[in-house]
Amino acid sequence: MPTQASADERLSVVDRDGLPTGERNLAMVSLAIGVGMASLDTAIANTALPAIANQLHTTPAASVWIINVYQLAMVATLLPFAALGEIIGYRRVSIAGLALFTLASLACACSWSLSSLVVARLFQGVGASAIMGVNVAMVRSIFPASLQGRGFGLNSLVVAVAFAIGPTTASLILSAWSWPWLFAINVPLGVFAVFLGQKVLPITHRSTHRIDSLTALYNVGAFSMLVLLFGDAAHLTDVKTLLLELIVTVIFFVLLLRRQTGHQAPMLPVDLFRHPVFFLSVITSICTFATQSLAFVSLPFYFETVLGRSPVETGFLMTPWAVLVAVMAPIAGRLSDHYSPGVLGGIGLVILSVGMWSLLGIPAHPAVIDIVWRMAICGIGFGFFQTPNLKAMMGAAPLARAGSASGVVGTSRLIGQASGAALVALCFSLFADKATHYALGMGAVFAAVASVASFSRLLVGKNSV
C-alpha cells in the first residue's frame, strides 16, 4: 500500500480502522517523540533545580517557579486543547504543540535570567499540554480496534519511562554539560517530529460545534487555582490564604459548569463522567499517579540525605521501576485486548501497593539489591496497571468524544502527580526526618484504593470495556 495518500484517502483509512502498518509505525514515532519530551521535561527539571538556581544567582524558593509554571500551564490548558482537537483536528493541535514546545525549549536553553526561563517554561508547558491533550486520541485513530491495547501500551510505556528516567537523564547530562543542554536536546528531536508528523499523522473527523473562549478561560482559572491550592496547603500557608484560594477555585468551577450546561461536547466532560467505568478509571488514574509521585519525589531525598548516595547513584537506584514498566506495559497492552481492564489493573495495583509497603522495610544500611528488588516490584505493578486503565477510559468514550477523553487522561495524570508532590511537601513540613516513611505509606494506601476502584469496574457491567 502506498505511503503517500491524499487527505481524503488518509481519512478513509482511519475511518475503516486505523492506519496501515508502515504508516502506523511512523506515526507512533512522531507521537512518541512528542509525548516523551513532554513527559521527560515534567520530571527532568527537578534534579537540575539546584544547578539552575546557582548559575542564575537566584534563591531555591524562587527557582521552584521553573517547575510550577510548567505544571500550571499543562494542567490549566489540557482540556481546552483536547476540545480544540475535536473541532480543528487532533493532527493540527499535535503538530502545533510540537512546534511550540520545540521553540520554547530553544528559548529555555538561551535563557539568561530566572524571569526569562520562567516565561520560556510557561510556553513550553503550553506546547506540552497541546501534545498531551490529544495524544491518546491520536493513538486511537492510528491503531485498529483489535490492536488498540498494543497502541495504548506503547503510549503508556513512553510516558511512564520518560517520567521515571527523568532524574537519571538530568544527572547524566549535568555530569557532562551545563543545565541549558537539558532543554537544547529537545530542539533537533522536536524539529524531526514536526516534519515527520506533517507527513504521517492521520486526519480525523472534526466536530461541528465551536469552542467557547469564556469556557476555556474559566477552565484555566479553575485548574490553575486548584494546583496552587494544593501547593500552598502542602507548605502550610496561613488559613486565610487557603480559604481565599478555595473560594476562588470553587467559583471558577461553578462558572465553568454553568457556562457549559447544555453544550453537546462540554470542555470539562461531565457527560463522560456519567459512565461508571470512565469515572472509576479516572479515580484509579489519579490515585496511582499520586502513588508514583509520592515515591519519586520523596525517595531521592532519602537516598541522598539519609543513605548518602550521589545524585547519579540516586538516578540509577530509581531506574528499576522504569525498566520493569518498560517490560510490563507492552505485555499488559496485549493482555488488555483479551481480558478485562478492571482485573488487569486491579492486579497491577495490588502489586504496586505491596511494593510500596516493601519500601518501608528498607534496612538501615541497605545493599543495592535491597533497594532494587523493591523498586522492581513497584515497576511491575505500575506497568501492569497503566495500559488497561487507559484502554478502559478511551473505550468508555464515544469516538466523537475521543479528544475530551484524551484530555481527561492527561489531566488525571497531572492532578495525581501534583497532589502526590504536594503531599510529600506536607510530609516534610510535618514529619521532617520521617517524611519519606509517611510519604511511602500514603503511596501504598493510594495504590490500594486505586486497586479497589479498578476491581469495582467489574461490578458495573461491560458497557464500556
From TrEMBL:
Ranges where the Major facilitator superfamily (MFS) profile domain occurs: 27-465
User: What Gene Ontology terms describe where this protein resides (cellular component)?
Assistant: membrane
Would you tell me the protein name for this molecule?
MFS transporter
Q: Which organism's genome codes for this protein?
A: Undibacterium jejuense
Q: Which InterPro entries match?
A: MFS (IPR011701), MFS_dom (IPR020846), MFS_trans_sf (IPR036259)
Q: What is its main location?
A: membrane
Q: Which GO terms describe its molecular function?
A: transmembrane transporter activity
UniProt KW Transmembrane keyword: yes
For this protein, the parts annotated as crossing the membrane are: 26-45, 65-83, 95-114, 120-139, 151-173, 179-196, 216-235, 241-257, 277-303, 315-335, 342-360, 438-460
Q: Which UniProt keywords apply?
A: Membrane, Transmembrane, Transmembrane helix, Transport
Topology relative to the lipid bilayer, per the entry, is: Multi-pass membrane protein
The subcellular location is: Membrane
